[in-house]
Amino acid sequence: MAKTKDRLYDTADTVRPYVDRALHDDDLRDNLKEAFNAARDVYAELLGGRNLTATATRVATDKDIQDNLKKTIEELRTAADRLQGKKDHGTRNSILLLGGIAAGILLNPMTGPATRSWIMEKITGESSNDFGYTSGNSDSAA
Questions:
Q1: Do the domain assignments include residue 141?
Q2: Is the dihedral of CA 73, 74, 76, 80 positive or negative?
Q3: Are residues 28 and 74 in the same domain?
Q4: CB 46 within 8 A of CB 59
Q5: pTM of the predicted structure, to 2 decimals
Q6: Nearest-10 crossing angle of helices 63-84, 26-46
Q7: Residue 68: how many CB atoms within 10 A of its CB?
Q8: 78/97 same-domain check
Q9: Which structural domain range is residue 113 located in?
Q10: pLDDT tens per residue across span 20-34
Q11: Taking CA atoms, which of 38, 63, 79, 142 is between 20 and 30 Å from 97?
């Protein structure tokens, strides 16, 4: 008897985070509502006294039904990810991409020096080449 109780408590502890997210996550509820509404629209469009062949033909050819099905699947996937606690890394990935592009432009031997001097002009307001590289030739200094 104690083993059954322990398994029940363990199962309840395992399920608790999912139930908590389902109850308190507004985005999750919005995703589920959108998925339900899109599925209901598809269902309403497909009903109408048609046989299976006519319904399948309509699904294959009607762009509105296909868009609603895609939206339903997308919203359900988003809801499932939120329920499981998966994080969206879109912002992080965008920042990394922009940082990589900026580093590529600034460190590129062809565009880097001109870009760096343009940025320094904008920051300091000076058009001189005070921050540029100098050659090791001492003859030009004399």
A1: no
A2: positive
A3: yes
A4: yes
A5: 0.37
A6: 150
A7: 20
A8: no
A9: 91-124
A10: 777 777 887 887 888
A11: 79
The alpha-carbon radius of gyration of the chain (Å, integer) is 30
Residues 118 and 78 in one domain: no
Q: Evaluate whether 28 touches 83 at the Cβ level (below 8 Å).
A: yes
| Number of domains composing the chain | 2
Q: Which two tokens stand for residue 69?
A: 């099905």
> Is the domain of 82 the same as that of 106?
no
pLDDT (tens digit, 9 = 90+) per residue, 81-120?
A: 777 777 667 777 788 888 888 888 778 777 778 888 888 8
Contact 75, 34 (CB under 8 A): yes
Q: Which of 61, 65, 60, 63 is nearest to 46 (CA)?
A: 65
Q: How far is CA 89 from CA 48, 95, 107, in A?
A: 42, 10, 27
Q: Cα 65 vs. chain centroid, distance in angstroms?
A: 25
pLDDT, residue 28, reads 77
77 and 98 both lie in a single domain = no
- CB–CB of 115/106 below 8 Å? yes
